[in-house]
Amino acid sequence: MFFEFGIKDIIDIVLVALTLFYVYRLMKESRSLNVFMGILMFVVFWLIVSQVLEMKLLGSILDKLVSVGVIGLIVLFQEDIRKFLYNIGGHQRMRALRRLFSSSDKQSSEQLKQIIMPIVMACMSMSKKKVGALIVIQRATPLDDIVATGELIDARISQQLIENIFFKNSPLHDGAVIVTHQRIRAAGCILPVSHSLDIPKELGLRHRAALGITHESDCIAIVVSEETGGISVAIRSDFQLRLSAEKLESILTQELA
Predict the structure, then answer these.
(1) Of residues 229, 211, 228, the one with CA closest to residue 220
(2) pLDDT tens digits, residue range 43-102?
(3) Looking at 164-255, which runs of residues are DSSP E strands?
(4) Across the beta sheet with 176-180, what order do the strands follow?
(5) pLDDT value at residue 53
(6) Cα 79 from Cα 84, distance rounded (Å)
(7) Which residues of the chain have pLDDT under 50?
(8) Do residues 136 and 220 lie in contact, with contact meaning Cβ atoms separated by under 8 Å?
(9) Which residues contact 187 (CB under 8 A, 6 or more apart)?
(10) DSSP structure class, residue 244
(11) In Å, how far are 112, 114, 257 from 109, measured between CA atoms?
(12) Are the C-beta atoms of 146 and 213 separated by less than 8 Å?
């Protein structure tokens, strides 16, 4: 007997295919592809046993394993699931939709200058002296958990303060500075490190930390290399390297406006 095949069935198949594709890509990036393929084979075997062959005893055992296994997978891959959901929420269209319900006013050009120029000047000065630095600018996603790992400062943004924090003999120079609400909120903060294999080998731990925090939030991470003095910016899990002062100012103005 033939079954009906309509537009809803097509949509159903497409949605399942897209879901499997995005889960596959997520597992591949997190180097858990073999685990994903094993789970997929188990699910196929479970469907054949319970739905096609209708083996009641084996099917009921596999049903119990699936119900318990889902909880285990959530615990095992909680960071990957969090990243997956964040990528969905951080999509360009989702951000545009979020702005419709946001009542916050855009920052004026004068306010932007007060935030951007001290950071740009400090980065250029540290670049010439080859002083390593890592500055994270918070946007919509709160970074309170990151702030809690460092020392609270809550000071006005200034070039001199930033350079003093990252001075080589300073006890806070190895961590990150967090900028929120037009102020330096904390220094010496610990960031999650990205384990992506796509990062060039010449980039150090600061760059991996900068990329790691952009995996989990919509922040802007600025890095000054201690080895080369080069200035880089990480935004939305992507790097822009070897920036000039003008380019850095342009990127920050565009992203913070």
Answers:
(1) 211
(2) 788 778 777 777 777 777 777 777 777 777 777 666 666 666 665 555 555 555 555 554
(3) 176-180, 183-189, 220-224, 231-235, 238-240
(4) 151-156, 183-189, 176-180, 133-137, 220-224, 231-235, 238-240
(5) 78
(6) 9
(7) 1, 102-105
(8) yes
(9) 150, 151, 153, 165, 172, 175, 176, 177, 178
(10) -
(11) 5, 9, 8
(12) yes
Distance spanning both ends of the chain, measured CA to CA = 61
Treating both helix axes as pointing N-terminal to C-terminal, what angle do 7-29 and 33-47 enclose, rounded to 10 degrees? 150
DSSP code at position 150: S
Q: What is the DSSP string of 41-52?
A: HHHHHHHIIIII
Residue 117 tokens, joined = 């120029």
Q: Is 81 buried (19+), middle (13-18) or exposed (0-12) by CB count in 10 A?
A: middle
Angstrom CA distances, 159 to 117, 120, 121, 123, 164, stand at 8, 8, 6, 9, 9
CA gap 145, 137 in Å, rounded: 14
Interatomic CA distance for residues 215 and 26, integer angstroms: 12
DSSP single-letter state for residue 217: S
Q: Can you list the positions of beta strands (E) in the chain?
A: 133-137, 151-156, 176-180, 183-189, 220-224, 231-235, 238-240
CA distance 51 to 62: 12
Going by their DSSP bridges, the two strands 133-137 and 176-180 should be labelled as parallel
**Residues paired with residue 235 on neighbouring β-strands, in sequence order:** 220, 238
Antiparallel, parallel or unpaired: β 183-189 and 133-137: unpaired
